[in-house]
Amino acid sequence: MLLYLHIPFCNSKCYYCAFNSYINKFSKQKEYMEAITLQLKNELKRFNPKYGSIKSFFIGGGTPSTIKPHMYKKFFDILEPYLQKNAEITVEANPNSTSLKWLKGMKKLGINRISIGVQSFDEIKLKKLGRNHTKNQAIEAVQNAHSIGIKNISIDLIYATSFDVNSDLDIAFSLPINHISSYALTLEKNTPFFKKIEFIDNSSKLANKFIKKVTSKFNQYEISNFGEYQSRHNLGYWRGDNYIGIGAGAVGFLKNERYYPYKNIEKYIDKPLHVEVEKISKSELNTEKIFLGLRSKVGVKKSILTTKQKLKTDILINEKKLTCKNEILYNSNFLLADEITLYIIS
Ligand SMILES: C[S@@+](CC[C@H](N)C(=O)[O-])C[C@H]1O[C@@H](n2cnc3c(N)ncnc32)[C@H](O)[C@@H]1O
Ligand code: SF4
For FRET with 185, which of 13, 127, 166, 235 sits at 20 to 30 Å CA-CA? Predict the structure, then answer.
C-alpha cells in the first residue's frame, strides 16, 4: 500500500499550473495540518493496513516546502507504526523554499527522497514559466539536499517548449541526482498559459531528442520518469497498488473505489472526513491497467485481457510494437502508449 499527502500551498502560481494549490491561504496552514491528521486516522480505518505494510509515503503539492518540518510531526507520529522499515519517503520541494534548515528538519522526520521542482536552469525560460526561483537557487537546493545525506534526489524538468533542452540536461547531469521526472508542457484550461501555443513544441522530433539525451544517463522506466533509482511510489501507482490519499484535492484508491476529499481548503478543514466515493467498473480498471502498464516498464499481464484484446495484442506483437515475456506484454516506445491502448480497448 502507498500513501499520498497533498499540501495545497504555494508561494506563487506558475503560469502553466492547474494543480490544486493556493497562494493566499497561508493563514490556514495550522488548521490544515491538524485536519490531515484527522483524515489520516479515518483512512487508516478504511484501508486497514497492517503495521509495517505501507511501502511508500509521498508528500506532494502544491509546495510541501512551504510547511515547516515541526508541523508535519504529528502526521508522522500517527503514520510511523504503519510504515515499512525501509519505506520510501519522498517530499516535493521548490528551490526557493528548500533551505538547509528545512531539509535537515525533514530528514529528521524520516524523509529519504526529495523531488525538487527545477523545471529549467535557463533564467529566461524560468521567467516565462512564471517560476519564482533562479538557476542558482535550483542548483543550491540539489547541493544542499546532497550535502546533508539525502541519497535519492530527483528533479522535475519541463520540456516540449521552444527552448533548447540540451543545456538543461547538461547541468542536470553534473549534479548529484539519481532521477529525473520530465513533463511535456501542457497548456491547461484556466491558466494564463492556456493559449500560449507559440511557447510549446510538442513535436515527436523534440520529444525523441530529449528522451535520447536523458536515456544516455538514466533508464526510462515510464513515459516521464528516468532514473538509476526507480521510485517505488511511482512503480506502485503503475502496478495498480492501493493508495491512501490525504489532503485537499488528493485521491485515494482501494480495490474498485476512489475517494475524493474536498478540494477547497476551507471545506476540507471543516469536514476532513468527507470523501466523495467513485465506483470503478471492471472495464475501467482493465483500461487503466493496460494504459499504465504500457506507459511504463511494468507491462500488462496477458491474463487480464479479454479474448478480443488478446487478438489485438497478437497483431501488435507481430508488428513488433509489443513484446511478450513470461506472459507479460511490454511496450518499448512509451510515447505510443495512448495510441496502442486505444487500439487494444476499442
Ligand atoms: C504539481 S507540481 C509540484 C511540485 C512543485 N510545486 C514545483 O512546482 O516544483 C509537480 C510537477 O508537475 C509539473 N507540471 C505541473 N503543471 C504542468 C504542466 N501544465 N505541464 C507540464 N508539467 C507540469 C511540473 O514539472 C511540476 O514540478
Ligand atoms: S508548478 Fe508547483 S509551485 Fe508552481 S503553482 Fe504548481 S504546484 Fe505551485
Answer: 235
